[in-house]
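It would be a great kindness if you could assist me with a short task in structural biology. I am sending you one protein, given as its amino acid sequence and as whole-number tokens for its backbone shapes. I would ask you to consider whether the tokens describe a fold that such a sequence might reasonably adopt. The full record is reproduced below for your convenience.
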Amino acid sequence: MNRQAHAVTDLASRKPKALKIERLLGLKPGANPLELLEIGTGSGGIAHYFGTHPTLSCNVTAVDVHDNRQVHAGYDYIPVQGVELPFEDARFDVVISNHVIEHVGDKEAQLTHLREIRRVLRAGGCVYLAVPNRWMLTEPHYRLKFLSWLPKPWRTPYLRWSGKGDLYDCEPLELAQIEAMLATAGVSYRNICVEGLRETLDIERPGALATRLLRRVPDNLLKRFRGLIPTLIYRIEKSGHGR
């Protein structure tokens, strides 16, 4: 399958996204620069954010199979093919995979993507993994309602009927699927969808009614519905058991 790049070209949206990643991972200045890898850099906005951060010192490397960068400063860029990463074991302190796994291929390729992340991560390092939820109301790549809800054989015909594309080339996952893959890949993970939702609203819509109302809802209640949150977000470490 000839998969499309699906790069986010709205460069302005990358700064709040990067700030959310920074907060969710709890990244702080240390004695040495952080070795940071962004997989699937797209426009380069997130890599640029961390590579030019005013207080957080990062040596940033970005990779992608398509070069759609709009900003080039602050990081090193390496083109790649497939899901294998051209780095030695335990190279990075931080790895970011933001809406990438649905583009890498079938389930075996997705599992390889997770295993490669584990391989290049240093002991004590952390990973930000964001996965579009199959049960999101509006599919984010084609902006078409219920597209990912359909059985696979129906998705491309629906996309063509809508006039928004010729081939559905993404593999979105539901909560049980991605967590089974994470366990198989041998990583320790924590589902931080609720925290991610709160950070998104606090950063992007701090004064909105929805944000104010959400602040009053306890985490335990929201976690009951995290399988329906549009983006599944995980903090990953090297090994152990997930929850």
Summary: The two ends are 33 Å apart (CA to CA). DSSP finds eight helices and nine strands in the chain. The longest helix spans residues 107-120. The first strand starts at residue 34 and ends at 39.
